[in-house]
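Propose amino acids for all 286 sites.
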C-alpha cells in the first residue's frame, strides 16, 4: 500500500524521508525523529487502523481520538491557548519583516495528516508561486493546523487552531512565514506568519489568526515591496535569521509588540543614539 523511496533508522523505527508516488513527503520534520507532520496515508492503513510504523506516542493519541469520533461528530471548542501571543501581534508589517517568505501561490494539492500531538494538519502543496517582494524565498509547501477534518470515516479534532482557513485545491492564496527544510512554511499560533485567500476580482481575505493586511492584490504587492525596500528589511535581518532560543523569541515578540504600539500604516527607519529604529513616517512624506 505504501511505497517508500528511502528511510533512516531512528530509535529503532524506520522513518521515510521521501515519499509516496507523487514525491511529496510522508513524514516531515527538521531532523531525525523530530517529526512535525505525518501524512494520513502513511499513518493509517486501508482499514483505518493505525499503522505499526507510527511511533507509540502518536499511535496512542490517534487510537484514543478514533474511539470517540465518527465522521458525523462535531468537535469541542478548542481551549484558549496558554502559550504566548504570536510574534507579529497580528500585524501585517511585522509578519512580513519577521518572515523570509511572502508570496502568492495556487493550491495544487492538500495532503491531510497529523501533528505529533495527533491534531490534524494539512500539508498544502503550492504551485505557480509569485513573490511579493524580491527578497522572498519560494516555498513548496505550507503546513496548516486544522480544527476538524474527516479521514477514512473518522472526524479528527484539532487543538491548536480555530480553523479559520480550510485549504481548497485550485484556489489562490497568500503565504507569509518562515521557510523550513524541504521548502515547508509551518504556521503556528506563536510564529509570525499568515494566510489569505485571493478572490477572482483580486480581493484579499485574511484567514490566519488576527493578522490583517492590504485588501487588494495590488495594494498587497505595493506594501510588501515598500517594507522590503525601505531600509526596514535590513535592520530586522538578525531577528529574521535568528529564530531559535528563548532570547531570540523574546526579541522577535518585542519587535512585533513595538510595531503594534506604533498604530500607523506607514513605517520608516530613523537614526537614533542607539542606532536605526523604526517609527511612523510623517504624514507629509506618505
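Proposal:
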Amino acid at each position: 500500500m505504501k511505497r517508500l523511496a528511502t528511510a533512516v533508522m531512528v530509535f529503532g523505527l524506520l522513518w521515510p524521508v521521501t515519499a509516496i508516488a507523487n514525491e511529496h513527503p510522508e513524514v516531515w520534520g527538521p531532523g531525525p525523529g523530530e517529526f512535525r507532520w505525518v501524512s494520513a496515508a502513511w499513518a493509517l492503513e486501508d482499514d483505518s487502523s493505525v499503522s505499526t510504523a507510527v511511533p507509540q506516542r502518536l499511535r496512542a493519541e490517534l487510537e484514543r481520538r478514533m474511539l470517540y469520533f465518527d465522521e458525523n461528530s462535531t468537535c469541542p471548542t478548542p481551549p484558549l491557548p496558554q502559550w504566548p501571543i504570536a510574534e507579529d501581534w497580528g500585524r501585517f508589517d511585522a509578519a512580513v519583516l519577521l518572515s523570509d517568505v511572502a508570496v502568492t501561490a495556487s493550491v495544487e494539492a492538500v495532503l491531510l495528516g497529523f501533528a505529533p500531538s495527533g491534531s490534524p494538519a494539512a500539508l498544502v502543496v503550492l504551485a505557480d508561486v509569485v513573490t511579493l517582494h524580491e527578497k522572498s524565498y519560494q516555498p513548496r509547501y505550507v503546513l496548516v493546523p486544522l480544527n476538524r477534518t474527516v479521514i477514512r470515516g473518522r472526524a479528527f479534532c484539532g487543538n491548536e487552531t480555530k480553523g479559520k482557513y480550510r485549504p481548497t485545491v485550485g484556489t489562490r492564496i497568500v503565504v507569509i512565514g518562515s521557510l523550513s527544510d524541504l521548502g515547508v512554511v509551518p504556521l503556528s499560533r506563536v510564529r509570525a506568519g499568515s494566510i489569505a485567500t485571493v478572490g477572482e476580482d483580486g480581493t484579499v481575505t485574511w484567514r490566519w489568526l488576527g493578522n490583517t493586511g492590504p485588501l487588494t492584490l495590488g495594494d498587497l504587492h505595493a506594501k510588501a515591496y515598500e517594507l522590503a525596500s525601505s531600509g526596514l528589511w535590513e535592520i530586522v535581518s538578525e531577528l529574521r535569521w535568528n529564530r531559535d532560543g528563548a532570547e531570540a523569541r523574546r526579541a522577535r515578540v518585542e519587535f512585533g509588540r513595538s510595531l503594534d504600539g506604533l498604530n500607523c500604516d506607514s513605517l520608516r527607519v530613523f537614526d537614533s543614539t542607539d542606532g536605526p529604529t523604526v517609527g511612523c513616517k510623517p504624514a507629509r512624506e506618505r
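The longest helix spans residues 246-262. The mean pLDDT is 82.
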